[in-house]
Amino acid sequence: AATKLASAEKLMYFCTDQLGLEQDFEQKQMPDGKLPVDGFLLCVDVSRGMNRNFDEQLKFVSNLYNQLAKTKKPVVVVLTKCDEGVERYIRDAHAFALGKKNLQVVETSARSNVNVDLAFSTLVQLVDKSRGKAKIIPYFEALKQQSQQIAAAKDKYEWLVSRIVKSHHEVWPNVSRKMQPAPEYQDYVYLEGTQKAKKLFLQHVQRLKQEHIERRRKVYLALLPQALDALVPDLDEIDHLSRAKAEKLLEAKPDFLKWFVVLEETPWDATSHVDNVDNERIPFDLLETPAAEQLYEAHLEKLRNERKRAEMRRAFRENLESSPFVTPGKPWEEARSFIMNEDFYLWLEESVYMDIYGKHQKQLIDKAKEDFQELLLEYSELFYELELDAKPSKEKMGVIQEVLGEEQRFKALQKLQAERDALILKHIHFVYHPTKETCPSCAACVDARVEQLLASRFIRQHRNNPLVDSNIDRINLVILGKDGLARELANEIRALCTNDDKYVIEGKMYELALRPIEGNVRLPVNAFQTPTFQPHGCLCLYNSKESLSYVVESIEKSRESTVGRRDGHLAQLPLTLILVNKRGGGDAGGETLQSLIQQGQQIASKLQCVFLDPASAGIGYGRNINEKQIGQVLKGLLDAKRNLNLVVGSTPGLKDASDGADLRVVMCLMCGDPVSADEVLLPILQAQPCRPAPGGGAAVL
């Protein structure tokens, strides 16, 4: 209770934690060895102590207070350890203070740092009356306020840490230096201390590492099914193996190291491999984890299910083939009850069975139609009495059906009566018009196949055969135009020809074959080239932006169709682009003559072809090209055709032939062109070698 202390060269403050470490803390000595006392904090421990009676302790405090009161110095009662305080002790301490005049009580906890500053500031206010009076806050209310303050400071500090620390490789010394200027760091350290700040940092780093490991784990596990599919796709190979033997089997696969990596240290998430993001190979020890084991079992189950589904599909097909209830044309709804069982529904969706059934039905129908066609050929006498080009009457159809009705091949199409009647009508048409177009064999017709083979072999022969083209007196011309333009020009050109489609060019007669095209050139009916028509040139007509676009698209489609084919004839086909009249004249659609000419010139430059416009042709807008212009175009195509024959590469056999060697060549009766008998006609027609032509010329087949 002394009010003056004297202790020369002693530190003003120290605690037992600083003994032996005094030099590590701030050194403050008593001034001149003397220290006046301005007030007292009377501390009362309100926790439950061992071998300590609080009533006796309170008596000691009362006596001590009486001594302090004699000093006339301010006194504040401080209840300590309130975080472990006993409610009765706190109540008794307050009762003690109430018995004294103006004795204030502050509830504190040094451990929780609650109201410690308040205790000192309360005493300071009593010493210095000029200071504002401090508000005494009960312990639990102060604890709540401080908890809120700490929580808010902690949230801000954690936000700061998450903003600065992005990698789990960061270390505390570097990060703490970066954060020191930030108020979020300063406030939290002031309230909770550096150690707690470091602890939160370490927790954040650990969380980042776990998140990184989890991302890598997901990448590996997502890749594992692909690895298993690639390495062990066969169920028989792994179905009865233990896990250990299955892993040895994986290691023995040639592509094992493409999918997996065997690490020297384990587990994988504690090695440097986890940070090697460029290496996505799966750590082999990951297979020992429960998640990987589940994926392996799922792979086995998938293979078993695939096998079972394949067995179900096979069993269903066999059921279809053996079932007498499945006939051509029978709907799925009628056949389902006869061919489905519960096992089928367990393994596959009904849509799968419907797809299989549809394919099976197509096979049945195709076979039934083929058999029915044979039946019609066997009963040819039924169709002899029909009038040429006349459709059979109902009575005649009734007779045909009555005669054929007992045949099983007729009954097989009972559910497809419309198609059966159509086959009969098609057969009648074929009987009176037996061409390759009406042939029941369609693409397999021998006549069509022979033409195709001859056409393809003929093109190849011309590339290697230096003989002059005997077809030089024939011009095959494609006329391409939209909305009737091609047909109109073809009619105009035919009007200029003789009765037998001959056209005179420079005093010589040429056979002129025209093929007007106005539709989609990818369809066979609109193709530039057919087995019997190989074009020598093309007239491209337009009278509007739309018709010009059609020409460009058609040419590009035609050229694309020759990519990869042995004959590139269409790719170098001579083209002439012509601007013709608009029906009714005028600038329809707002298109001027000048703009159409300009567009045509641009397209001609792009297609590398000749461009004819009304000005260059010497005719007015509103008329088609005249006879002179047609003659010039045909002469240009004829010259191009001659040049093509002149530059064809020669074969080694030509020189030998001129020296009298035995070069066997035949003439094709369909087109008159020379072709090699040994290489083309004999293998196709199985004919005998031809007799030589008189004078050692080309033989005639």
TrEMBL record:
Domain of life of the source: Eukaryota
CDD domains: pseudoGTPaseD_p190RhoGAP-A (cd22221), Ras_like_GTPase (cd00882)
Residue ranges constituting the FF domain according to the UniProt record: 248-302, 309-363, 365-430
Keyword Ribosomal protein among record annotations: no
PG1 pseudoGTPase domain sequence ranges: 469-646
Keywords annotated in UniProt: Cell projection, Coiled coil, Cytoplasm, GTPase activation, Nucleotide-binding, Repeat
Residue ranges the record marks as coiled coil: 293-320
Protein name (record): RHG35 protein
Limits of the PG2 pseudoGTPase domain: 664-701
GO biological process, one term: regulation of axonogenesis
Pfam families named in the record: FF_RHG35_4th, Ras, RhoGAP-FF1, RhoGAP_pG1_pG2
GO molecular function annotations of the record: GTP binding; GTPase activator activity; GTPase activity
Localization in the cell: Cell projection; Cytoplasm; Endomembrane system
PANTHER family in the record: RHO GTPASE-ACTIVATING PROTEIN 190 (PTHR46005), RHO GTPASE-ACTIVATING PROTEIN 35 (PTHR46005:SF1)
Any one Gene Ontology cellular component term annotated for this protein: cytosol
Keyword Methyltransferase in record: no
